[in-house]
Design goal:
The structure is a homodimer.
Chain A (H helix, E strand, L loop, with lengths): L7 E7 L2 H11 L4 H4 L1 H5 L10 H14 L6 E10 L8 E11 L5 E9 L5 E11 L10
Antiparallel strand pairs in A: 1-3, 2-5, 3-4, 4-5
Chain lengths: 140, 140
Amino acid sequence: MTLLQGQTATRSLTITALSVRTFAELTGDYNPLHFDEAFAASTKFGRLVAQGGLTTGLLHALVAMDMPGPGTVFLSQNWKFTAPVYIGDTISARAEVRSVHPTKPVCQLQIEVRRGDGEVVLEGEAWCYTFRGGAPTTQR
Amino acid sequence: MTLLQGQTATRSLTITALSVRTFAELTGDYNPLHFDEAFAASTKFGRLVAQGGLTTGLLHALVAMDMPGPGTVFLSQNWKFTAPVYIGDTISARAEVRSVHPTKPVCQLQIEVRRGDGEVVLEGEAWCYTFRGGAPTTQR
C-alpha cells in the first residue's frame, strides 16, 4: 500500500488528572500549572492545564499506530502550541501527508490538534521515517 | 532574578522498560520498535528503542523545573531526532538561552539531548513563555 499525498488520519485522547500525574512521574514535569490550582487560577489559563507532552504524545501514537503506521519514527517536529489543554479535555489530532519522498520511506505531515470545543491547541509539521517490516510505506 | 542570554541548564532521565510501557499506556504509542524485539532487531536500530516522546518529555521537565522554571510553557518546538534512545539509556538534556524578549517573559532556547555514550539524540530550538508567579523571568 502506498502513502499518498493528501491522505489523512485522526486520533483522539482524553486527558485526565491521572494522565497529568503519570506524565509528571514519567518525566519529572511537576510544573505548578498542572498541579497547583491557585497558581493556575492566577494565570490567563484560569485553571489546571495538561502538559504539552501529552498533546505531542498523541502525535507519537498517531504516526506509530495510524499513519504512516507501525515502524514510524519522527525525524523532526516543528510546531506551535496555540492554546491550553485542560484536564478533562478530549483532544483530536489530524495529520495530512504533505509530501512523500520518491525513493525513501520518508514523508512530511501537516499536523493540527484541537480541543473538543474546536480550539486549535497545536499546529505545525513533522517529518517521519518508516522502517520496513512495519506499516505500509511507499517502499513496499 | 533575570534570565540571561547564554545561561544554561541540564537535566537527565533514565529510560526503563517501565517508562516505555507507561508512555504507551498514556498515549497509545505501541509502536513495535518499542515492544517487538524481532521487529526492532530487523531495523538499523538493532534493538528496542524508547518513544521520542520520552526524550521530549525530559525537555518539558527541564523548562518547567529548571530553566526558565515553574510556570513555563512551550510556545513552539523545532527539533530533529538524530539518533535512537535505547531502553536503559540515561539521556541528558542541555538548554541554553539564545534570546530573551525585552518586555515579555519569553525566551528562545537552544536544545540538545545526548545519550550516555555522548551521541546527540535530539537537537533544535524552542520558544517558551513563563507565567508570573512562577520562576524567575525577566519580568520580575
